[in-house]
Amino acid sequence: MKTRRLTRILIGLIMTLAVLAGAAYFGLRYATQLLKTQVETALGSDAEIGEIVVGWSEIVVNQVTIHAPKGWPAADALRAKKITIVPDLRGLLSDRSKVHIHRIRIDEAFLSILRTRDGKVRLLPSLLEKPVKKEADKTAADSPAIHVILNKIELHDGAVEFFDASVRQPAHKMRFEKLQATVKDLRVPDLSGRTGIALEGIFKGVRRDGKLSLAGWAELATKDSHMATTLAGVDLIALQPYLIKAAETGVKRGTLDLSLKSTVKNKHLHAPGTVILTDLELNEKGGTFMGIPRQAVIASLKNRKNQITVNFALNGNIDDPKFSLNDSFAKNIGAGVAGLLGLSIEGLTESVGSAAQGVGSVFKKLFSK
Hints:
This protein is an alpha+beta fold. The chain has two domains: 138 residues, no CATH class; 163 residues, no CATH class. Helix content is 30%, strand content 44%. The protein is built from nine helices and 15 strands. α7 packs across α8 and α7 runs antiparallel to α9. It is globular.
């Protein structure tokens, strides 16, 4: 009798669990589809999502695509094979004013960026350039701010294509591949505290690929930061539109190495660095390179084992309207190159100004406001 009773109880429990499991399954499917629709709506009409998988400890978003608008130089503004979000569910239940996310991992993402002729940088236009309704602003202002704490954001095997229409038509394209990046301790919206940043990847070139790395921290609220940036073996042909003018001689081959350690404290920038040009070969014609006579450049390379090394230091108040990172870089590099090429003291000022205009154009174009 006891055995039969126990069997009936077990069967009853199994049937109850089966019913609950079925309800949970269909409820989860409905909730997942609703979440997918809401995310696609938030991303805009140009967005597509393959699927959203909701697990007990993480949310996985597969095949995210935001198509580019008409006239964009790439087919897509953003693609990501997989986005994994690991939230702190226990923390969310205890305090709904804060969202704590342990980790966001983004696999095989692609992002296209466009700089227009007038120097304006655009990315994700369908998402970031959407007009904001006044009523939505009023509602958002009346609602309490939700603080988001991100422990870690990881990017694995990402790619970026940067199209620059300010230097050439059609827009000059630079591509970065195999990007691995980590952002730690990010707080939104107050942006307080130090956020760790690390990035490395490949700078694609015509004749060879170079390497890019960046590591350090930034306190986004105060703009204080400490960063170490390195470019190694970057193909000069890929940077040619920034280095020369239309009337100057072109580059057949060569590489650029840059090491820069920048510190911003109390709005003051101090950034010592080194630039190295190696195995530079110019086209077979006269003219100038970076504002310097072609023959002088060739002679200098022969005297220095096909390598030109220039040390420089950038200093200034980043909030001072008179301070220009571009001009500061141009003055340092221009003076260094002119001195190494043995230009006469009498012509130094004129030559440095010309060289600075050429070399400094790299940073003028990349960092212009």
